[in-house]
Amino acid sequence: MPVVSIMPSGKTIEMPAGTPLVDAILAAGDSIAQKCAGKGECDSCHIFVHEGRKSISKIQRKENEQLDSIVGVGSKSRLACQAILGEENVTVELLGFASGL
Ligand code: FES
Predict the structure, then answer these.
(1) Which residues line the pocket of ligand 1, CB cutoff 6 A?
(2) C-beta separation of 91 from 53 below 8 A
(3) Which positions fall inside the 2Fe-2S ferredoxin-type domain (predicted)?
(4) For residues 20 and 41, what is the distance between their CA atoms, to the nearest angstrom?
């Protein structure tokens, strides 16, 4: 199973392919805001994916529209509720406002 590594906490968790990244983050014991309850309609679960981007699900139209509206969005940006884990390990970064730190 792929391993999800989470920055800045350094937590890691093995999760099966097909798991939304937000579920992996929560299962690892980190916190992440989900203002729209995972519908892809807000930006509270914005994360950066540093490694393994190619293996996770492609950005769909709704996620793309939300990302377009986020200040500070970059090529590593994803919405954790919309990005689905693939077969490869990934490293994600929780952003300050969303990590509860
Ligand atoms: S929780 Fe709202 S877009 Fe992910």
Answers:
(1) 34-36, 38-42, 44-45, 66, 79, 81
(2) no
(3) 2-98
(4) 15
The boundaries of the domain holding residue 91 are 3-99
For a mutational test of ligand 1's pocket, the pick from 25, 35, 61, i.e. the residue with the most ligand atoms closer than 8 A to its C-beta, is 35
Which strand (E) or helix (H) includes residue 65?
helix 61-68
The tally of domains found in the chain comes to 1
Task: Locate the ligand 1 atom nearest the alpha carbon of residue 38 and give its number.
Answer: 1
Distance 67 CA to ligand 1 centre (A): 11
What is the Å distance from ligand 1's center to 54 Cα? 21
**CATH number for the domain harbouring residue 8:** 3.10.20.30
Q: What is the DSSP letter of 28?
A: T
Residue 66 CA to residue 51 CA, distance in Å, equals 22
